[in-house]
Design brief:
Its cofactor is Mg(2+). It is an enzyme of class 2 (transferase). Condenses 4-methyl-5-(beta-hydroxyethyl)thiazole monophosphate (THZ-P) and 2-methyl-4-amino-5-hydroxymethyl pyrimidine pyrophosphate (HMP-PP) to form thiamine monophosphate (TMP). Belongs to the thiamine-phosphate synthase family. The chain folds into two domains: 141 residues, Ferritin; 199 residues, TIM Barrel. The chain has an eight-stranded parallel beta barrel with strand order 3-4-5-6-7-8-9-10, surrounded by six helices. A two-stranded antiparallel ribbon has the order 1-2. By secondary structure, the chain is of the alpha/beta class. The structure holds ligand LCLJCK34, ligand 3NM and magnesium ion. The site of the ligand Cc1ncc(COP(=O)(O)OP(=O)(O)O)c(N)n1 has 16 residues, from strand 3, strand 7 and strand 9. The site of the ligand Cc1nc(C(=O)O)sc1CCOP(=O)(O)O has 17 residues, from helix 15.
Amino acid sequence: MVTRIYENSQFDESTNGVVVMVEPYSQKEQIQQVVYRILDANLDRAREGLRIIEEWCRFGLNNAQLALECKRLRQEVAKWHTPELRAARDTPGDPGTELTHPQEEQRASIKSVLQANFCRIEEALRVLEEYSKLYQPNMAKACKQMRYEVYTLESSLMGHQRHQLLWRSRLYLVTSPHESLLNNVEAALKGGLTLLQYRDKTADDSLRLEQARKLRQLCHIYGALFIVNDRVDVALAVDADGVHLGQQDMPIAVARQLLGSQRLIGLSTTNKEEMQAAIAEGVDYIGVGPVYETPTKLGKVATGLEYVSYAAKNCSIPWFAIGGIDANNINDVIDAGAERVAVVRSLMQAEQPTLVTQYLLSQLNRIKPEL
Ligand SMILES: Cc1ncc(COP(=O)(O)OP(=O)(O)O)c(N)n1
Ligand SMILES: Cc1nc(C(=O)O)sc1CCOP(=O)(O)O
Ligand SMILES: [Mg+2]
């Protein structure tokens, strides 16, 4: 027998303070207590995590449907939290209450808070599923089902977040190879950039993956969206927010199948037929250009401001004017109807990318600050 026996000692008033030993736990009972404690702790963990997500859906997104789904899951978890399991709680005797990780003490963005808490809920449900097999197999089945429902909730919520941020983004930086790629991008993020595309037409795949991973991490820290140009496989490998495709790249339907409904797909368009086809194919945004001829995309004929005006009147999804846009001509593009622009050289070759980002954003925000 182990020390647990003595922890079961009780003070008995009827024997004038003589300590009475109660029956020691058998080994089987001790294990049962441990299982109960694990179930109790993880039921709490799952509910707390769901509550944190729910608060964001309710107050941050004003999304009643997502908030309701969190609440339903919370109540489903609560159903399994019986008095028998609660009675096993021994917080003072739990060495885990002291354990924290530095990453838990600080979060870079709402996205990090949400991701950390989805992880927490999913882990808790997995623990519940395994240990409740020793308790009630029905509970194990229910926890497995709930875990899948949480995965679905996570993908809807993250997809929703992505779309919201896309709609709010007015400036899109498309990168070009640069010796200080990360510093340059970070400077733009500091200036308020919320949408980045990694574009490198010549790098080999190992460098491409390494850079994409680092850029995604950077965007994650600044709460910006991260898109990969051309390569669906790289986008998936680094868990990017989406991919940008051209008319000659992978068909949209195939990319959608690979990326799922929650990641973003952008498509370049140069005329109204391509624009209408892109919308019909269900892309999330389009590029509109090249507005001006540009050395970044040599040989592509400029569409001029006419196509920008057409997009302003006819495009129902977010669109970004692109091609030769800089601080000198951005107001002409805005006057033609653009609310969003994408640039390469203006920021990649800027001496002070933070300032240029701020300037471009200030011009774009001038028209309709409420986007
Ligand atoms: C925002 C945005 N618009 C257009 C493009 C060009 O895409 P594509 O035509 O596929 O050409 P490449 O960029 O792959 O050379 C883009 N990348 N981003
Ligand atoms: C990558 C790209 N796509 C374009 C299109 O019209 O599809 S124009 C373009 C390059 C834009 O670079 P800059 O801002 O340096 O002119
Ligand atoms: Mg392409």
